[in-house]
Design brief:
Elements: H1 3-14, H2 19-31, H3 33-37, H4 40-45, H5 48-53, E1 57-66, E2 72-83, E3 89-95, H6 101-117, E4 123-129, H7 138-152, E5 161-164, H8 171-185, H9 205-223, E6 232-236, H10 240-251, E7 255-260, E8 264-267, H11 274-283, H12 289-294, E9 299-302, E10 313-316, H13 325-333, E11 338-340, H14 349-357, E12 361-363, H15 365-368, H16 371-385, H17 391-415, H18 422-440
Parallel strand pairs: 3-4, 3-5, 6-7, 6-10, 10-11, 11-12
Antiparallel strand pairs: 1-2, 2-4, 7-8, 8-9
Helix pairs in contact: 1-2, 2-6, 2-18, 6-18, 7-8, 9-10, 9-16, 9-17, 10-11, 13-14, 16-17, 17-18
This protein binds NADPH dihydro-nicotinamide-adenine-dinucleotide phosphate and (2Z)-2-iminopentanedioic acid.
Length: about 450
């Protein structure tokens, strides 16, 4: 059996109860097969892939907190410190009832290559909890965050591991987490990113993932001879990534007609109204039914199925495996030009393959959504030098980083004879830097 196949079989056997993790590893390892097989014996001798797929450290802990009725609740907290070859661990915290170790491992593994693609010195990590912020009061969220940090603080630091937001973690949660870290350690340092602007946050970090997705998509379309202006788009999700993807798309002359949340989706043929969406999701933390109630032009549909709407671009920005094969078939039938992932791994492996085989330009999340973590790294730089840059400065650096990623991804795919396969291009380009650093640092 080839070395690559051996390692994939081992990963499946050792992590059988973690399908998302297996999916993420299989996608990456399959696409770097060409690189490994060009020098197989060396990689085998170094047990290189076995080391790559094994997190440097997994921390799991109890998170007890008291709800508003005085009842004690217990959640499970995680931080997976995956790979520190090119910098301190960096990656978000996710609060969602679906969180278990396999989700955090898949996200941490993806983060290694994404962070490498940014060109900035950040390693891969991820954390979170099965706590559900929905329906909780601000005080309950605060008590949970304080308890979570009361364990996490001993494992993180501005030069060791720097968490940030992800699903269910935005400015409110980062504020509570930061306050508790500072209270326990006495350190006023850049230990978290996505902080508020009054205490060390960076301008443009809130917008960065969504804006970055559009800078990336525009450049990738341009490489393919297509102008983004005048196109129509479907976006899924209605959170941080989706909202700012829609905002930037509209600034680029793209008409976005959909968004979705965990209960249903909106079709608004006049174009999503961003101020209304922000009011419903950022201020009121309400359901999209409230968006439909406020917009006569909008239709609300229960459940999933945004892919039913015919648009030029499809930008999934909600969660993993939201786009199944059935959806991909519909997108191909609709004549969709490109699918660029704002979320992490929103497209199943079968759906990805179907889109690629049917001529749809497909950009994986680890390249297309890297703008968030890239801007987090810019926040770390500003914290280190104790300065803050203007919105324009951060935003123009972000745009430059995203364009650079496009060109590196395209070049890596070309170099290995897989032109147009941006999944392979992203995985190879991300892997090369990490591999070189790991080799240089010996067996650790
Ligand atoms: P938010 O919590 O702000 O928003 C998530 C959105 O997706 C919400 O609209 C939510 O619905 C919906 N959603 C979440 N889980 C599900 C589910 N299981 N089924 C259906 N819908 C769901 O998170 P973000 O916008 O920050 O994150 C979205 C995606 O982007 C994630 O995959 C995340 O990992 C990824 N990402 C985030 C980055 C960031 O900087 N924040 C950076 C790079 C990637 P509801 O409103 O009902 O909760
Ligand atoms: O998936 C991601 O890249 C994020 N949630 C952002 C991580 C970060 O450290 O900003």
């Amino acid at each position: 059996m080839s070395y690559v196949d051996e390692v994939i079989a081992q990963v499946k056997a050792k992590n059988a109860a973690e399908p998302e993790f297996i999916q993420a590893v299989e996608e990456v390892i399959e696409s770097i097969r060409v690189v490994i097989e060009a020098d197989e014996q060396k990689y085998r001798d170094l047990a290189f892939l076995e080391r790559l797929v094994e997190p440097e450290r997994i921390i799991q802990f109890r998170v007890p907190w008291v709800d508003d009725n005085g009842k004690v609740q217990v959640n499970r907290g995680y931080r997976v410190q995956y790979n520190s070859a090119i910098g301190p661990y960096k990656g978000g915290l996710r609060l969602h009832p679906s969180v278990y170790l396999g989700i955090i491992k898949f996200l941490g593994f993806e983060q290694i290559f994404k962070n490498s693609l940014t060109g900035l010195p950040i390693g891969g990590g991820k954390g979170g909890s099965d706590f559900d912020p929905k329906g909780k009061s601000d005080n309950e969220v605060m008590r949970f965050c304080q308890s979570f940090m009361t364990e996490l603080y001993r494992h993180i630091g501005a030069d060791t591991d720097v968490p940030a937001g992800d699903i269910g973690v935005g400015a409110r949660e980062i504020g509570f987490l930061y306050g508790q870290y500072k209270r326990i350690t006495g350190l006023y340092e850049g230990v978290l990113t996505g902080k508020g602007l009054t205490y060390g946050g960076s301008l443009a970090r809130t917008q960065a993932t969504g804006y970055g997705l559009l800078y990336f998509t525009k450049e990738l379309l341009a490489v393919n001879g297509i102008d983004i202006a005048g196109k129509t788009a479907a976006v899924t999700g209605a959170g941080n990534v989706a909202i700012y993807a829609i905002e930037k798309a509209q600034q680029m002359g793209v008409k976005v007609v959909t968004c979705s949340d965990s209960t249903g989706w909106i079709y608004d043929p006049e174009g999503i109204d961003v101020p209304t969406l922000k009011q419903v999701k950022e201020v009121k933390r309400a359901r999209l039914t409230e968006y439909a109630a406020a917009r006569p032009s909008a239709e609300y549909h229960e459940g999933k199925g945004v892919w039913a709407i015919k648009t030029d671009l499809y930008l999934p920005c909600a969660t993993q495996n939201e786009l199944p094969l059935e959806g991909a078939k519909q997108l191909v039938a609709n004549g969709t030009i490109a699918v660029c992932e704002g979320a992490n791994m929103p497209t199943t492996l079968e759906a990805t393959k179907y889109l690629q085989e049917n001529g749809v330009i497909f950009a994986p999340g680890k390249a297309a959504n890297a703008g968030g973590v890239a801007t987090s790294a810019l926040e770390m730089s500003q914290n280190s030098e104790r300065l803050s840059w203007s919105f324009e400065e951060v935003d123009s650096k972000l745009e430059g980083i995203m364009k650079n990623i496009v060109h590196n991804v395209v070049a890596a795919a070309d170099k290995y004879g897989m032109s147009g396969n941006y999944v392979a291009g992203a995985n190879i380009a991300g892997f090369e830097k990490v591999a070189e650093a790991m080799k240089a640092q010996g067996v650790v």
